[in-house]
Amino acid sequence: MPHRCAFGCKNTNSGVVMHMFPNPKRFPEHFHAWVNILGGKFERLSDHEIYLRKRICDIHFTDAHRNRYKRLNALAMPTLYLPETIAPSITNLIKTLEGIESLWKLLSRKYGIDAMLKKNFNQDPIENFGVRNIAPNTVSFEGAFKALMINNYSEPHSSGANCEEDHNECLQSLDFFLKDKNIITLDIPDTNDTIHFNSEICFDQSNEINAGQTNYVCRWVLKRCLKFIIKGCQHCKQTLFENDISNDNNSYIYAKEYMNKKWLCYPNKEVESYFKEIQDMTTSFFF
């Protein structure tokens, strides 16, 4: 029984030459390029089955693809008389928008989430899920979309992703730690468990040696923030770090630096002041 063209050509001429697909083991890239041109017609067949059972007729190749024996050269690619295919972009894009809307309703109603950055989702049309498959089924799309969500929410985002306006609403319930008002007192017996604020430890640490050590520890904290929070934000770097080494308290950090290099983090005066206050408060509470 003669082979039929994989494109569905209705060739009645028995003399039409039929060409096999490239060997998927020897030429995998060339083989998959042929399969991609056919779209998703053979997604249920293995590469070996396509290679043995499917053929493409000679009319889809130009003369430049043939040698004098009418055999195809190694770079031959079907380019002529290809059937027009319409990728399901519009239909599936609507489904994607409906899926995003359903996801937002679930997150907002069930989990109380009040903001969702859509830019953290893949913006490609749905047919791009599943690599070369332009006609994915619902199961493959569901798996790809789940993996995409996990990756986008667990990996670093773009350089400006941490510069979004944030009103710190999630921390407003903790503001009573910093203010005297709104302190909730419990009905407990009077005990002498008050925390004594040691002002001597807190305010008597302004010597140069301790300041240098404080800045060195602050450098380590900034380094961790640079890796996990700041990432590539240039505005944050300019705000927190010192460009020129003019602060004498950073001399201990500079002594650890390689010669004529500036690879370490140097906190500026404002960050140094904030960090010293945090250190003094922590020291006064625990010692």
TrEMBL record:
Key words, A-Z: DNA-binding, Metal-binding, Zinc, Zinc-finger
UniProt-recorded Gene Ontology molecular function terms: DNA binding; zinc ion binding
Domain (THAP-type): residue spans on this chain: 1-81
Name this protein carries in UniProt: THAP-type domain-containing protein
Taxonomic classification: Eukaryota, Metazoa, Ecdysozoa, Arthropoda, Hexapoda
